[in-house]
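User: My advisor, Dr. K., asked me to get a structural model of this assembly before our group meeting. I'm new to this, so sorry if the format is off. These are the inputs:
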Amino acid sequence: MPLVSMRQLLDEAAKGGYGVGAFNVNNMEQIQAIMEAARETKSPVIVQASRGARAYTNDKFLYHLMLAATELYPEIPMVLHQDHGNSVETCKSAMAMGFTSVMMDGSLMADGKTPSSFEYNVSVTREVVEAAHAKGITVEGEIGCLGGIEDGHGAGGDALAHLTDPDQAVEFVRLTGVDALAIAIGTSHGAYKFTRKPTGETLKMDRLIEIHRRLPNTHLVMHGSSSVPKELQDIINQYGGKLKPTWGVPIEESQLGIKNGVRKINVDTDSRLAITGAIRKVFFEKPEEFDPRSYLKPAREAMEKVVAQRMTQFGQAGHAGDYTPIPLEEMAKRYR
Ligand code: 13P
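Assistant: The format is fine. Below is the predicted structure of the whole assembly, which you can bring to the meeting.
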């Protein structure tokens, strides 16, 4: 099966009332972990690469690994998505490389740090939508700013400082024509999201519900949605790591989001924690080992386990065979 548009995957998820995890990758083992989890759970998948990941891999490698995945897992619909494109150029280079979906994060300026104006955000996002839809490629936009920093990209600081305003969200979707909308509801990238289990004061699910009420036909995206499980933190710390106690987004909150229009849930940190814990364990227990496979294999298995768990929890499990992919040219016609 060729790479498919994210729009098709999310439309199907909306029909079926489930969410789809979007998992970040930087190397072959992470792609393999996601694909094995997808096969095991019969899930459609979104694989995403940040700007940092594209630079780390040289995205030609990444793209060809994804093509290998389409050959090896022909039964799985797969999207290759640019996570947090900082500029029109970044999105255009991803499209030229063969990505089937891009995020134009115009909530920040091109430096990836400074919150932008509404007008700037609309103008760059609109430009990407025009270029992408002409090729049948999907666009995710962001309104409001997430907390934290991911791969050097992010407003940092207080996750409640730039929450999404529902009126602006409605206006933004109307003016840009985005397929999916990332909203800021108090989550942040990375392991340190909340200092205790989040409450309605720190994780604004009521705002998400209000945005969905106002935009019932827009696919919402939750970023910074790793649940940062205590078990994974404990493994890292048991084998010499030094993570401070921290809380992520409880699975039941992501599931509440899915009941209220969330179709894409971004997860990176949980995979990183699983991989690091597995590698630390091998280094600690078998200090004589030096074959990279001795620690990369358990690392891959640990990521596969957490990804398969999320696929089941988000409800995408069992849906890989529900539909045949619509070619990008046909998607382009539909946008016209
Ligand atoms: P986490 O850091 O919670 O995994 O979020 C990842 C993300 O939102 C990628 O855009």
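One thing worth pointing out at the meeting: The chain has 13 helices and eight strands.

User: Perfect, thanks a lot.
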